[in-house]
């Protein structure tokens, strides 16, 4: 893993987020690409729990791509994916079709937000 902030939060309680964990684990054809920075306060706040959710859902590491960006938010794939804010998490099929994306901050944590949209789309 290239982002320390994606290290799973050991205090995160998977049982409290069972629906999100089940959804993330049920779709073995999805790839999660995470743009973030260990220097970013939003990333430090949101990504450890997302990392824990992916871990609890047994999402294999080869389906998680972590991309560190610099403080100017520059890095691999930034232009191609139109990344302006971090963290950004793009969920795609194996064929590269975007299913959904989480951008910086929503009203619920990334795992829940993405799981709800994955359920809606699939």
TrEMBL record:
InterPro entries: Thioredoxin-like_sf (IPR036249), Thioredoxin_domain (IPR013766). Residues 1-122 form the Thioredoxin domain. PROSITE patterns: THIOREDOXIN_2. It comes from the Archaea. It holds the Pfam family Thioredoxin. Coiled coil: none annotated. This is Thioredoxin domain-containing protein. It comes from Natrialba taiwanensis DSM 12281.
